[in-house]
Amino acid sequence: MFESYGNDNTLLDDWTGSDGAMSVVLPDGRVVWDFSDTFLGFVNSDGSRPPGQPFINNSMIVQDSGALVQTLHGGTAQSPTSLIIPGDQNAWYWVGDMTVEGDRLRVFVMEFVRTGPGPFDFHWEGNAIASFVLPDLTLENVVPTHGENNVMYGAALLEESGYTYIYGTEDVSGTEKYLHIARATSGNLLGAWEFYTGTGWSSDPESSARLLRGVGNGFGVAKVGNRFVLFTMDSLVPFSAELVMYSSNNPEGPFGNRKLVYRTPETRGDRITYDTHVHPEFTDAQGRLLVSYDVNSLDFRDLLTNVNNYRPRFIRVKIGR
Hints:
321 residues; mainly beta; four-stranded antiparallel sheet; 2 helices
C-alpha cells in the first residue's frame, strides 16, 4: 500500500518516504497515519529519488477503504511545509502517537532545536499536543504539555479501562533510555495527569519513575488478550537490529519477559533501523498483530539512491494468549 502510493507521481506534493508510522482509526472508519521527517515529490522509475525534492519535519496520510488517498502538510502544493510548526523558527516538531477524543484528533509532538551542523546535533525542548478538528482534520491549536524529568511523553498511547495511558522515554544517552508512564482519564488528555511512581500513581509529575531500561524514543504498546505487550528496538545497543517484546499483566507494568521478535535485515553498513510501533486495528484473521519499524541511513545519498531506504517496514507477530 505504501509502495504504490509513494511511487505514484500523479501528485508531486504527496508522501514518498519518512520515518515514524503511527496510526489511529477515526470515528468515520478512515485511518490517519502520522510521520516525522518526510520526503514529498517525485520518484524515478528505477526507485531513486531526484535531488531537491521537498523535505518537511512532519506530515499525515489519510487512508480510506484500504487505500492511501491524501497527504496532509502545510504551505501549498508548490511550496509545502511541515503540517505542524512551532512558533520558534529555529525549532521543529517530530510527532508521537495519536488518539481520538470526541470530535478531536490529539497528536503528541516533541519540539527540537538544532545545536550544530551534524546529523545528531539537536536538542529536545519540550512536548505539546496538537489538536485537529474532525472530520476535516483542520489543525486547531498546539498546547504545551508535561515533560518533567526530561521525559518525551507520547511515544505510545493506550486506551484502557477509562484511562489514556501515556508512555514516554527519558533519553539520557544513546544507550541509556528509560520508560516512564502517565495517564489521564479518557477524553481528557488536556486535563490533569497522574504519573506512575513504580508503586502507585501521583499527581506530582516529578515523581514519575524510571521503569524499563532499553526502550527506544518510539515504541508501541498494545493489549493482546489479557496481557499488555511493549514492542521496541533494543536501545541498549546503538542502532540495534533486534526488535524485542516485553509483556505485563498491567498497562503500567512491570514489563518483563523479554523476547527477541525479529532481527531487521536492513541493518547493515550505514543503514539503520529504529522506532517500533504497533497497529492493533490491523490485526488479521489469524490474530497476528501488525508491527512497524523505521529504516534510514547515516549516508543521505542512500535516501536518494533507493526510496526504500527511508520507508517503514511491517511485520506480523503472533502472540500466544
